[in-house]
Amino acid sequence: MHSGIECLPCAIRQCRQIVKMVGGNEELERKAVERAGAVAKGLSLDEPPSTYTSRILLAVMSLLDSSDPFKQMKAEQNRAARPVAEKADREIAESPEPLKTALMLAAAGNVIDPGPRHSFSIDDALKELQFAHDDSDMLIERLDHSKRIMYILDNSGEVMFDILVLKRLPKADLVIVARPGPILNDVTVNEAKELGLEEFGRVIGTGSQFLGVDLATVSDEFRKVYENADVVIAKGHANFESLVGRGRDGFFVLTAKCELVAEPLGVKLGESACFYSEGSSAEPLNPSF
């Protein structure tokens, strides 16, 4: 999908938030906004929002002394989400459709995100467990016949609800994907391993600094697993923005937190979706741009 004109003010707002998180003064905030504007002048809205935003965020982060401004926030998000997810885990045992319920909980957990302009309550999301767009039956049927599964993580905090899904996936060769290094509150490879996710499958990185999955800059390791997986499950906005309708098919589990994402999902702001995309045979898996 393409970026929209609303992506620039959203990216600038996130840059200002990052400066404040590292205790930056007004002068540093001014420099960050100027850098963001200068970088944006050379960007194209034809890029996915995840790529467009990443280019701006990475340029601004180079101005800071901290390589991981969200480190403390990520730890706090995981600590806060853990008991909620553990309680939900016990409740799933009573569900007639445990995997589907776990997927709904994982989508609800996607609201734990400091990035979007709109804010949503995890408590409210957990009370409204349903998919406004629901391809989960198709996903579960596909999983039952799959030997190779890829699960692409998104945010910290949210990852505690992803565990509810990971532990209920059918027995298969499972590869769990995280970011190779810090950007916003996304889960990194090291953090995923520290949380014990290797118990469920092999943990790898995308090989790219960008949010989501930038197919032009991912590693050969990621690309090989991605292309050969029987089922790909991708969590959150950035993964949806960067992968939907491109190359291969996949399932996207998320909550719509901005209009640009809500529209192609066919849902309202704050609603969750398990969305299947057929991909596009016209879109190469190995783009040269």
TrEMBL record:
Any Pfam family: ARMT1-like_dom
Domain Damage-control phosphatase ARMT1-like metal-binding: residue ranges: 6-271
Top-level taxon: Bacteria
Entries under InterPro entries matching the protein: ARMT-1-like_metal-bd_sf, ARMT1-like_metal-bd, PH1575-like
Name of the featured protein: Damage-control phosphatase ARMT1-like metal-binding domain-containing protein
